[in-house]
Structure formats: C-alpha cells, structure tokens
Amino acid sequence: MKELKVGVVGFGTVGAGVVDNLLRNRDVIAKRTGVMLTLTCVADLDTTTDRGVAVPPELLSNDAAEAIRRSDVVVELVGGTTFAKKLILDAFAAGKSVVTANKALLALHGEELFAAAERNGVDFYYEASVAGGIPVIKALREGLVANRINRIFGIMNGTCNYILTRMEREGADFAEVLADAQRLGYAEANPSLDIDGFDTAHKTAILAALAYGHWFGIEGMNIEGIRDLKLADLNYASELGYRIKLLGVIKNVDGAVQMSVRPTLIPKAALLAGISDVFNGVMIEGDFVGQTLFYGRGAGRQATASAVVADLADLALNFAAGTRRRIPAFRKGEQFDSVTPAGECVSRFYLRLQVAECPGVIAAVTKILADRQISISSLIQHENQGENVSLVILTHPAPEKEIRGAMTELSSLSVNRAPVRMFRIEEV
Amino acid sequence: MKELKVGVVGFGTVGAGVVDNLLRNRDVIAKRTGVMLTLTCVADLDTTTDRGVAVPPELLSNDAAEAIRRSDVVVELVGGTTFAKKLILDAFAAGKSVVTANKALLALHGEELFAAAERNGVDFYYEASVAGGIPVIKALREGLVANRINRIFGIMNGTCNYILTRMEREGADFAEVLADAQRLGYAEANPSLDIDGFDTAHKTAILAALAYGHWFGIEGMNIEGIRDLKLADLNYASELGYRIKLLGVIKNVDGAVQMSVRPTLIPKAALLAGISDVFNGVMIEGDFVGQTLFYGRGAGRQATASAVVADLADLALNFAAGTRRRIPAFRKGEQFDSVTPAGECVSRFYLRLQVAECPGVIAAVTKILADRQISISSLIQHENQGENVSLVILTHPAPEKEIRGAMTELSSLSVNRAPVRMFRIEEV
C-alpha cells in the first residue's frame, strides 16, 4: 500500500486531535483511500506537556523544519499570521503540500500563499478553516459547483452562538454569560476575535471567495459583533417570532456582491434558527439546488481534526493518482461587477427606541420613517414600562442608508432617551 | 481551455434539468474547474416533446449509442434496471466514464457495475442517487473520511416526508394526503416504491456501503413504509414530544451493522425533526466530527441536476489532471463483523394498543411487558375515549424480539380490540 508521510507543526488542541485521529483511524482511512497516512513528525516548541495522545518519542521535534524534511505533507496548526506564514512558504519551497486550519492567515495573506503554492506546484487545502468539522468548503467548491450562488448565511462562530443561546434560554445578560463561557473554556481570555465578529468575517471572506471567484479578504467588509447586544433585543425578537444570530451573510444581488457579519434576526421557524450552543450551520442557496444546510461542530479538537485529516486524505488520493493541483488552492474567476457598500444594501430592519412616554411620540417617530419611504411592518409598545418606554419597529425592505439617516434624526428627538438599536432581518 | 464532451441519455425531468444546467451554467463551472463541459448529444426515444430547454437540434438523437460515440462521459438518466444497465456497460466497454442517478440499479447491480468500471479503467459516479441535490455521498466518502461512522439517520424520500408533514399539519389521513400528492405530482400513480420504503432502502444501502466498505444491497434489510401509518399515532407521538419520520437508519453497534427503513419517532427538538415537506436531511455521526446534518432538496429537476453536474465537474477535474479512478466507484474494505438481525436490535419503542376499558387492563398489559424485562418510560390513556380506548406506551431500550413477543401476547388478550401499533424511537 502507498504511504503518505505527514508532518504536524503545532501540538496544541487541534494538533493533538489530528495526531489522535491519525493514530486511531489510519486503518479505516487506508481502507477508504487505498493510502496509508503515516505520521512522521510532530513539531512544537513544547513537546513535553501531556496532550493525551501517545506519540512515539522519536516523532517529536522542537524544530518545524524537521517536520518539513521528514514528510510529504505538512499540517500547519501553529496559528497566528507570522511564523505560520513563513512555515507554509518554507514547506512550499521544499515541494511539500500543506494543510491548514488558519482562517486569519488565509483572510490576510491568502493570495500570496496561493501564488506561492502555484509557483511550487504543490497543493494547499484548508477545509478546517471554515465551520470546523463540517465539510462546507468541499460542498461549496465541489458538491455545489454546478450552481450560481444566490446567498450564503453562516453561523460560524461557536463562542458567539453559545453565548446567544444561553442569553436567550436563561434570560441572562451578555457580560454574565461571557464570563461563564470563559470559565468553561468556550471563550478566550481575550474574546475580541470571536465576539467582535472578526473570526466570522475571516470565514465569510473565504466562502465568498469560493462562491464568486475573487479573493475579497475582510477589508471593507461590514463587521459588527455581539458585544453590545442587549437581552431586551433578544426578547423582543423572540416575541416577534425571530431569533438573533451572529450571521455571516453573502449575497449576489443584481450582479453585485453583498457581504457582512452582523447580529441578524432570522425567523424561528427556519432550520438555521434551530442551530444552538457551540454548533455551526451554513445555509447555501444555489440557483439549481435551492436551499441547502450544512450543520455540525465548528470547533474543538476532534471535529477540527476530522476536517484536517479529510484534507490529508484528499492529498493522499492525489498522491496515489500521481496528480497535483487537481483542485488548486484558489482559482480566480470573477462573477460579479462590484461589492455593494453597506448603506446601499436593502433589507428589512428591526429598530428599538427608548423614548419618553408622552403624546405625539409615535407620530414623530413614524413621520421620520415615512419621510424616508421606510414602511413599517410591525410595531410594539408594551404597557407599564415606566417613564421611558421601548418602542420596537420592524420595517419592510429599505436601503440601510435610509435607516441610518432615520436613526440620526430619531436620536435627536427631544423624547429620545438612549441610542437607537438596529439589526437587519433576513428571511431564510 | 480543455473541454469534456457530455452525452445525456434520458431526456425526461432530470435529463432536461441537466441539459438546462449545462447550457446555462457551463461558464461559471468552467471558471471554477478550468474545464468546459460541452453537451454533445441528448438521446431519448422521444426527442419531440417540449422539455422547456432549447437544445440545438443537431444534438438530439433517438439512439443511445450515439450519445456514447459522441462523448467523453455518458449521463444515464433513463431509470429502470434493464436498459440502463446495458447502456452503462456499453459506455464502460467504449472506455467512457458514466454518471448516474439510478439508486435502484445501484442497489441491485452495484457490484457488477463497479467491477465493469474497474475492468475498463473508467470512472462511475452517482452523487444524485442519494438525497438529490445534497452532496451527501461526497460528504460521507471524502469530507468525513477520517471518521469511523457511528450512525446515519436519513430522511431521504421527499414524497413520504411531504405526506407525513401534511398529515401532521392538517390532521389529515394518509389516503387523503396521498391522493392529493398524486394530483400535485409529488407522488407517482403507483406510489409503492416511495411509500413502502424501497426507495429509501436503496439510498440507505448506498450510504451504508460507503460508510462500512461492504456493498450490502437491500436483501435482508428491515423495510417498512408509511402506508399503514395512522393519524392517531402521529398525534400521540406529537403529544409525547416526538415526530414520526420515515427514517433510513444505519448504526454500528458493538462491531456489527444495523440497517433499517421504518417510520420512527424522533424528538421534536432534534434538527432532523424540523425537516419538513419534500426536503431531505441526512444526519451522519462520526467518532471525531460528532453529529453533522446535511439538508436540501432530495428530488426534482433542478436539484438532481445540481448533483449530476457536480459529478461531471469532478470528472472534468480528473480529465484535466490526466487521472482516472482517483476515487473508484466503490472501494471494498469491510469494517464490520456482521449485520444484526432486526429482532436483536435494541432501541426504545412506542406501542399503541386499543383495548376495552375495564378493570385490570393496564395491569395485564404491563405484566406482559414486565415479564419480558421491558421497562416503561411513559404511559398515556386519555379520558372519555368511549368503549375502546387507546393505550400508548413508550419503553426504555429493549431488544425488538422481546417487543414482538410481547405484541403477540398483547394481541391475544381478551380485551384487545385491534392490532398493536409499534414504532422504534431514535434519540438523535
């Protein structure tokens, strides 16, 4: 049986999962692919901490270069964008293909890395970079290749989804649940990458690129996290039949691309709204296939390892077939005219105002909306809220710049008591 | 740009969808794969009926052999198991790769066809044979290749799921909804293949084979359809927090495989229970990835075409890379010791008895269960049902043979008034 030599660089959580998978499941992978994946080196600065897997000591090294030398394929799991980038370029230069889970690196330096892979005639796979164990890159790039992609909606950050699920279930505030998530290891000590939406943005950029043939990156993407999300908004959304999720959104509207990462209202009845806790889900809508949904664990040692080793198995098949670059890291092929600025995007909106309860308030508020041709589909003001009351409005589709204009005017009303809250609504 | 010549045999619903896709989306597929898929022949006995797609007349033929001669790849969409089989073998013999959506043919003659493809050194792909547009074969065979598969639960027949959804939503009887589904074109005039579970069984057999490396076929599979399903059982299930779905079930328990197609209770809270109408969903649970779910349209002209053309794109990539049989039609590699007979399978059960309302009935019923060590987890008997009452019991896990034994005894109770209804319960 043919054998593919695998070097792993980065023996942290995911690295240990990959090593565990290769040691425990290489027999069944060999039955399925006809190739034996053989672990030849595990490199990390720290090779002494117990990772819960029994690596033969002769495979351990403190030198990443050793992993490159001893292998046919290098798995980059060190994270970050500096050493990881150098490691990958070194591996390419040595003629070795690379598998990575590093979405931040791809979003930032994707094009440079893809060019280097091409120059060196090697493969570069990154299934684990989006939605962890869910094979969504393979689905988009291969399984749904026959479709023009209309829309992609992704719940792609387990930390945020866990926090939102608990806030909704327990009626708890953001800060309280975040602190608990940190205690349980579901959120980092510095949670910004997750809760401010950047991690979701990296993944959104990768999916958008594969859908539309242009490497967008996250420059200029409209990104908003969940840090300022109030329990009151989750509750009002729920009352109105919606759930708020941190959604990566990609749309093709009139030949232009819209991309954003924002807390978004989606109907509770939608399958996507049922994705809770740390799970991820990606809805992909194609012109022929219609709506599809891919669901599973978006992070964690074992689920991420599943995706990394799937890439290794793909490389093993290439290796056995004597082919490289059957599917290049990224193939350019633009399908769009332009990226639509956030202000030009049309959607439905949720607005929540806090206003003094006195005559003429609703008249003043609704006149501001009416003057901008913003049509109201639903309005709630509950009784007995005290002196300042929440006024919640759902709109029909309107351009975001009109909504933002209205928000400025609403904020300057003398009866206004707090910043106006605004979220997009997406029909799934 | 390289060009792959495609011949389509069978210009019915799906055939027209494939032709439509190739004519409308070949530009975007070429951008993504670097290969142009060129339609070179569409063969059918009937080439005059308007299929809603503008095929250049010189591509039409009444001769399937013409499609083989003019193409690099043949798409078999004639259905059935006689002419379709001959056509595929003829294509293989001519050195042409084949794409099919024909699950019945695969379930019946898979191994013979796989051997012929191997002998002729050609590719044979069949993504569209399971769950229509959902790329679930690619997910199982490639995306989740690093996993030992614990369980697969599939809602894979749109006709049945449509009928069950309407029965539950409208409180309608099976026969009534079936008649309506036939009128709307969602069910065949002869609906047996769908409603008696055979179509789901064909798909279950294919997924089981890919999961466990043995071509099982449907011989000896435990198959039960929805023809005898009563509205009362959907209602009781709902009251208890469950929904009844026609589920293809594949499990690996203690090194043996369990396979069945049966109406099954699943918890309403499970994502799988939210799959309604004609949609399909497949839950795949692997040892590393955990639970994943793949959702979309399982049938129809456009969704099925999406899967067929995805296979063509895969073949195009092989063609451009100068490789064949990178992923063979089927690779043997058994992982199991045996297939567990239905009677030995352990699960929870739903039982509904219709009994006379008189003293001692529940005592007699529960004694029969107790004597067989069948433990009751829930029991319902509503008031005011009249002379004969429904008694609904959910059990803790028990071997099916004990349940069937108990059913025989229950049926012979003097107070029994109707056949005992029994369904499995699966926790998702």
Describe this structure in words.
Two copies of one chain form a homodimer. The first copy, chain A, has 428 residues and is α/β, with parallel strands linked by helices. Chain A contains 13 helices and 18 strands. The first copy, chain A, has helices spanning 13-33, 64-70, 83-93, 103-120, 136-143, 158-170, 174-184, 192-195, 198-212, 231-239, 301-321, 361-371, 400-411; strands at 2-9, 35-43, 60-61, 73-76, 97-100, 124-125, 149-155, 222-223, 242-253, 256-267, 279-286, 290-297, 338-339, 346-356, 376-380, 388-395, 398-399, 421-425. In chain A, the strands form two sheets. In chain A, strands 7, 8, 9, 10, 11, 12, 13, 14, 15, 16, 17 and 18 form a twelve-stranded mixed beta sheet that branches. In chain A, a hairpin with a 2-residue loop joins strand 9 (242-253) and strand 10. The model of chain A has no long low-confidence stretch (mean pLDDT 96). At the A-B interface, helix 1, helix 5, strand 12 and helix 11 of A face helix 1, helix 5, strand 12 and helix 11 of B. Strand 12 of chain A pairs antiparallel with strand 12 of chain B, so a sheet runs across the interface.
The helix content of chain A is: 25-40%
Largest sheet of chain A, in brief, is: 12 strands, mixed
Oligomer: homodimer
Strand content of chain A: 25-35%
Q: What would the CATH topology of the largest domain in chain A be?
A: Dihydrodipicolinate Reductase, domain 2
The CATH C-level class name of the largest domain in chain A:
Alpha Beta
Number of domains of chain A: 3
Put simply, the count of helices of chain A is 13
Low-confidence spans of chain A: none
User: Mean of the pLDDT scores of chain A?
Assistant: 96
Largest contact between protein chains?
A-B, 63 and 63 residues
Question: What's the architecture of the largest domain in chain A, going by CATH?
Answer: 2-Layer Sandwich
Structural class of chain A: alpha/beta
- Apparent shape of chain A: elongated
How many DSSP E strands of chain A? 18
Radius of gyration of chain A, in Å, reads 24 Å
Task: Identify the CATH homologous superfamily of the largest domain in chain A.
Answer: Dihydrodipicolinate Reductase, domain 2
N→C terminal distance of chain A: 47 Å
